Amino acid sequence: QNLYFWEAPQEYLGQNLYTYGNALKYIVRYVIVRGDTSGVYTYEPDVILEGGPDSSRYGFRWHKRPEDSDEDEFNSTIILPLREQNWFRVDDNGREIPDSQPSRQDFALLLNDLKRLLIRAKYHTDQVSGGLYQTDLEKASNSSASIKKAVGTEQCECPPGYAGLSCEYCEPGYRRVNNVLVNGVCEKCNCNNHAESCDPYTGVCSECLHNTTGPTCGECKPGFYGDATRGREDDCKPCACPLLISSNNFSPTCRLESSAKYGYICLECPEGYTGERCELCANGYFGNPLIPGGFCAPCDCGPNANTTVEGYCDRLTGQCKYCLENFGGWKCDECLPDHWGNAAIGDCKTCNCDLQGSISSQCNPTTGQCECKPNYTGVRCDHCAPGYGNIELGCVPCNCNTTGSMDQFCDEVTGQCHCKPGVFGQHCDKCLEGHFGFSNNGCEWCNCNKLGSEGPDCDEFT
């Protein structure tokens, strides 16, 4: 004769220790063939529980065979006590093993890990239908809304480290060594008070809290610093490198450092940042990481800055402070005063304006032409203008005599006019000694006879 059972779904299984001392309730209904038949009631377990560490099976028989009844339909509410009394072990075929009532411990262990719950579906060899309704597995709970008390459920006084109505759990921060329940030990986890549980075999902390990490939660997570072994919630504080806001937190890691100004140093400042907390811009960068939104940007000093000098650009403003010779400006992109040229191509030269002939030392920044005083000329204003001479006297007018001079120009250094033949003087305004007849043709030679004349001179007019 085949056996048939209803099998409970998953929500009835698992940890059911708190059902001990309570009851399994359900309504069963079945119908057998009407009339005089040769069928009989079967004598099998009405409920089978399977579970515990060794997957034991225990059965219970509530069914009283109504051998004398002429009823062909059965409908009843069944209440089974969940205690070890009247339960028996069953074999792999679902048959009772004689004299096999479980101990209290065995039955409790089975309920603590219930793997299967089977309720008998066929009770008679001529049964034609059957039904199961309103199955209820009573369980003790402090949060239950029922007014009924679970008087059969024990509540033990547990030693430190143990919890649960039957001390079957370990308190948070403890582990059940090797997961041994019976005669097992709850040992305090070495997690520095930063985890609620640890692996029962290795002792490795399962989920570190308070920004800690490591097998014993004895280290701070990346991005935090401190001494996690002190066992306090605030052991690990967030790294501020240099601020806590994401826009100004430039290092993902930091380390406790007692000698540091703020007690820690940031370990991974990106390029362009320096300082214990990445709070400064490195050489060649500028900005202010200490203000929200502030960052370090490369200095824009071009090729005319002396980048070999530490701090060649201001770390806060970006102003280029050490330009190469002849260069200046905020970015070393200009020629210095008194210089001219094209800074963009690195070509700046001194003006070298002549101080006597120039109005100032500054020249045209593009051409290099100095601004000359009146009567001076030249790029550097170091020559007298045409019609002027004697540079030491300030380039005075030549004032060349129009009769005795070949033109109106004079020597720029001496101021001497260009005289016609026989003409003499700074301004070419008289005849040389031994000459006469000052005219547009110059002066003629006296040609006095040496024997008959008192000297070489003659009358300058005749």
From TrEMBL:
Disulfide bonds join C208-C217, C323-C332, C351-C363, C353-C370, C372-C381, C398-C410, C400-C417, C419-C428. It holds the Pfam family Laminin_B. The keyword Disulfide bond applies. Its main location: secreted. GO terms for cellular component: basement membrane. Residues 189-238, 299-350, 351-397, 398-445 form the Laminin EGF-like domain. PROSITE patterns: EGF_LAM_1, EGF_LAM_2, LAMININ_IVA. InterPro entries: EGF, Laminin/Netrin_ECM, Laminin_IV, LE_dom. It is found in: Secreted, Extracellular space, Extracellular matrix, Basement membrane. One of its GO terms (biological process) is tissue development. Keywords: Basement membrane, Disulfide bond, Extracellular matrix, Glycoprotein, Laminin EGF-like domain, Repeat, Secreted, Signal. Residues 1-155 form the Laminin IV type A domain. Laminin is a complex glycoprotein, consisting of three different polypeptide chains (alpha, beta, gamma), which are bound to each other by disulfide bonds into a cross-shaped molecule comprising one long and three short arms with globules at each end. This is Uncharacterized protein.
